[in-house]
Amino acid sequence: MALLDVRGLTKKFLGLTAVDNVDITIETGELVSLIGPNGSGKTTLFNCVTGFLEADAGHVHYRDRDITKRAPYEIALLGLSRTFQQARIYRRLSVVENLLMGIQQHQGESILERVLLTRKVRRLEQEATERAEELMDFVGLTHLRDQPAGNLSYGQYKLLIFATALMPDPDLLLLDEPAAAINPTMINRMKEHMVDLNRAGKTIFFIEHNMEVVMDICERIIVLDAGRKIAEGPPDSIRNNERCMEAYFGR
Amino acid sequence: METFVEQLLNGLTLGLMYASVAVGQALIFGVARLINFAHGDLFMVGAYVFFVAYSVLGLPYPVAICVSAVVMFGFGGLFERVIVRPILDRPWHVHLVATLGASIILISAFTLMWGSTAKQVPTSYSATILQVAGFRVSLQRIIVVVVTLLSFLALHLFLQKTKTGKAMKAMSQNREACAVVGVDVRRLSTLTFAISCGLLGLAASLVSPLFTISPTMGMGLTFKAFAAVIMGGFGQVNGAIYGAIILGVTEALTAGYISSAYTDAMAFAMMILVLLLRPQGLLGRGKVGI
Amino acid sequence: MTSARNLWIPAALSVALLMVLIGLPLVIENRYLVHILIMTGVYCALALSYDLVVGHVGLLSLAHPTFFGVGAYAAAILSTRVASPFLVNLVVAGFVAAGLASVVSFPFLRLAGASFAIGTLGFALIIQLVANNEVWLTGGTDCTIGVARPRLTLGPWIDWRVSSVSDYYYLMLIILLLVVVLCWRLTTSRVGRTFISIREDEILAMASGVNLLKYKTFAFVVGAFIAGSVGAYYAHYSTLACPEALSSYMTIALLIMLFVGGVGRMRGVVLGAIMFTFVPEFLRIAPTLRMVIYGVLLLLAIRYMPEGLDGVVTKWWRKLPLARTLASSGENNQKAG
Fold first, then answer.
1. Which secondary structure element, helix H or strand E, spans residue C259, and what is its range?
2. Is B100 on the interface with C (CB under 8 A)?
């Protein structure tokens, strides 16, 4: 059974169909990209899958579980991590605290235990901190550990967001434009990180505009245009698909 | 029957007083996207300006009305420049705290200057009782109703016909587009405050002879006007007027026939109900609720 | 997390501060000044609980004094009608306020942004009218009077009849300490981090797995519980409960303490409460003039000091040579450890 199974997903805004009857299946261990021109409904699709928007029709299954009408936090706690296009971070929390925020709700202790600061909570915080140190090391932010996240550069934001999404050790990562608006060096780092993770067994599904990134690292590409899925396949087949190139570049 | 008509007229006067505050709040919210928690206190300032002009300086009534309206027009512009302008681009909670701060400054400053006891400013018209179709009505009430309604009509025409007025209306419908088209957002914001405060000065000089004035009278007005604005559909000038009049009349009728204790509570309960029916925020569209 | 080695400085400072606070009524002869200290304590506790809601979760509730007032009335009514002891009243008042908060949080927490603020304001005004008009329950504008002086008994060991101003001072100090410890625990633990995540970015918090409604309700209800209990103390101290306790004036006073002192910072909020109550009494500034000054301070704070007085003081402190030495020694410790 597929890790993520989207069937007939439809979302309308004021009569305008943003996502139109889309089917998507992601298998465990895949590295898949979602591409399409601006306004083709990519982010809307992500928002429907992660519960931030309620779909008008269709179903989303995650590991055989129907998550269509679930709240965003419930979906997150099921092991489905997402990032946002607008580079959201907690600016006034430090880098390490941002990372800790990425996992602490997943560890499942009660509010009361937290207030009492029980031994269990201290152990969990310790574990979380260790994991945060590992990930800071992985993305190379260790030297900024206690800096307020608001002081970081845009490229560093992106790395921090990426690392935060990894904190709960999610089964599926949904990344919204991880390589947008950052410099080529950063893009290469991001590419490497994604490939490394995928080799280590993580399933990644991401939206990207940078065709170079997409063509380089993906096994499979899904193309959206005006809310519909118009093509799907390995990079070569997409590159040679006239309809896709037309939708994308207007040629 | 006689008391019913009297109560109705009382309610209408009360409603028009609320409306003068509510119109300003709706207009300001439309143009500047700011909820002014000091608007009722600006009404209070208008009432005191009128008090000074009429009772202290002894100016004739029509002149005193004009003085109050003109002074308040200027004061409104000044208020915008000093209090509002610096925080206009900040989030809504900053607006709320800053205008509440302005409110407490106005209340305390006027208490310092004029004392906390309520003052009366009767005009010769308030004692003149007319017989209209068999009903006894104070002339002052008739003046209030007629002149306030005329001022609303003037505002309506201003918003419909003049270039500036049209820009204000456009602003409340689509801010981003206006900024792009080159509408001077800041100048409009100042002007909106000036106009709505001028209206307050006018209304305050009309209504004050019927009620008492005191430095703390504004806060209650602010909250009542909120209720009216919210009931009338947020940011809608006409809706705010209707909301205020309905509020005033209901209040006068319940006070007259049922009990005066909970008339205010009813207004706030209605306001909460409207809010709860639109949990997505007062603007009703988009994800960002205000 | 600060390493254990340089925790001794704040610890020593806290103990010293506590010693000073315990010693104060022994040194101060003027009983009025002790009364002002008590009021400062009341406002500190109230502002700290308000800051949980406003400063940490970012919910601009305008109904906080309502919970304070409801607590005061609950204690006053219990004390005058059934003569229940102080400690019972303290807890029951907290629960009454918390119960009311959990009931109203159900509809209000679904409101976004300013709708929440205005909704809570409407609620506060309605409760104010109830306090004014339901004379059979509250005594109306004549207040509920004759609240008993507290007497704390614990078996045969303790029998403390609180009667003098300094007794009340110590009682306040105990309550304030409890509130400080609770707020400190809440804000520095993982709960506090979750609170701040909500304040900083609700959408990201949801993606981090935060159940917004649960945490907002929790903060709102705990804040109300503290406010209600402090209200109970206040009723027993002033021996009455009046409608003024729930007025909008109180809301503005609390907002001033928070925003002038430093919203979302415990030290700042305490500083704000002291600035608001103790300093002006000490300088003998007339109450009305005081509010003009505070209004201006609030406007200046919101415009120029987003982190309040505490932020400014912290900045100055960091520039002092002494602070630099301490900081560098702390760093050395960390490197060594």
1. helix C248-261
2. yes
**Alpha carbon distance A98, B254 (integer Å):** 55
* C211 to A100: CB separation less than 8 angstroms, yes or no: no
Select from C302, C305, C307 the residue whose CB has the most chain B CBs within 10 Å, as the one to mutate to test that interface.
C302
Instruction: Kindly report the pTM of this predicted structure.
Output: 0.92
**B158 and B131 Cβ atoms separated by less than 8 Å:** no
Q: CB contact, 8 Å: B227 with chain C?
A: yes
pLDDT of residue B230: 86
Q: How far apart are CA A136 and CA A127, in angstroms?
A: 14
Q: Which pLDDT value is given to residue A250?
A: 59
Mean per-residue pLDDT of chain B: 87
A170 interfaces chain C, CB cutoff of 8 Å: no
Q: How far apart are CA C204 and CA C194, in angstroms?
A: 11
Chains that touch C (3 or more CB pairs under 8 A): A, B
Q: What is the pLDDT of residues C206-265, one digit of tens each?
A: 999 999 999 999 999 999 999 999 999 999 999 999 999 998 889 999 999 999 999 999
Tens digits of residue pLDDT in B53-110: 999 999 999 999 999 999 999 999 999 999 999 999 888 889 999 999 999 999 999 9
Q: Are A106 and C209 a contacting pair at CB < 8 A? A: yes
* Nearest partner of B30 among B215, B162, B196, judged by Cα: B196
- Using CB atoms, which residue from C110, C114, C130 is nearest to B92? C114
Classify the complex by whether its ipTM is higher than 0.85, answering yes or no.
Answer: yes
Position B256 scores a pLDDT of 81
The reply to whether residue A92 touches residue C203, judged by beta carbons under 8 angstroms, is no
Q: Is the CB of residue C204 less than 8 Å away from at least one CB of chain B?
A: no
To the nearest whole Å, the CA of C240 is away from the closest chain A CA by: 34
Cα distance between residue B275 and residue B268, in whole Å: 10
Residue C337 CA to residue C329 CA, distance in Å, equals: 12
What is the C-alpha to C-alpha distance for residues C283 and C265, in angstroms, rounded to an integer? 26
